[in-house]
Amino acid sequence: MSEDGCKPIFKTIQRENKAKSRDAGRPIFEDREYVEIIIPGSKNERPIRPVRDEDKERWPDEYRRFKEGQEQASEGTPLEQWPRMTRSRVYELKAVGVYSVEDLAALADSNLTNIGPDARELRNAAQAFLQPDETGALKKRIEELEAENTKLRANQKKTPGRKPKEAA
Question: What pTM, to 2 d.p., does this model score?
Fold first, then answer.
């Protein structure tokens, strides 16, 4: 996915080479690389065109996977894995090219109307979901410090002739 949220699907399409067909007196087809550009939140805009050099530069990982015959899956957290989503809402969003929580979080203002009246709230929730969990990080750090403190106290008790300092 690019910074603008667009996602490519690279494919090979067979097209007739009219000049070669005319010269051979029979249909001659060639495999040509095309890209379908999915614009999350857009109902009707899904351009399909021949692959250009700038497409390969814009989406190098996706193009590499296409050339290697790998699946060109949407990256990020699938909508199905986000507890906030109902099954029917997932289908609605996928119908307009939104496949992941990241797609939803990056949705352009101009495409919000295509996903329903709660679009802005849903996008904000997706953005919040993707923010690092500071409370979780803090809890983990507190647990680490408590474990270290327990270990220090245990070592202090093991050292003979040493008394713990009293707090003043």
Answer: 0.55
